[in-house]
Amino acid sequence: MTDMQHWGVEDHWDLAEDGYGDCEDYQLLKRKLLVDAGVPRRALLMTVAWDSDHQGHALLMVRTNVGDLILDNERNEVLLWQDTDYKFVKRESQYATGWVAILPRPATTASIK
After folding, report:
1. Which helix (H) or strand (E) is 35 found in, with range?
2. Cβ contact 24:46 at 8 Å
3. Positions in the chain whose pLDDT score sits under 50
4. Is-contact 59 47, C-beta < 8 A?
């Protein structure tokens, strides 16, 4: 549900506790539930990306010792960020208030035989 349909405004970030919301509302709710379950808040970073339709999309990045995982309201799988088809733009800083840019992933090169 869009923010306009739900809240009557163009853009509003809130928890999707009533079962309705757009992508960032679901990510905020996931983050709250994970923090309530004991996951460190600074390991849970709101992240912005472009999806395959070139639409902006909010995701939750979970920083772990095995890599950065992406929780997404559009799929059931939990994937490493590099295994998604998103073009990442920015994420919350893990160390300070604010956002940091995510550099494009380097192109893979074919091995030389």
Report:
1. helix 23-36
2. yes
3. 108-113
4. yes
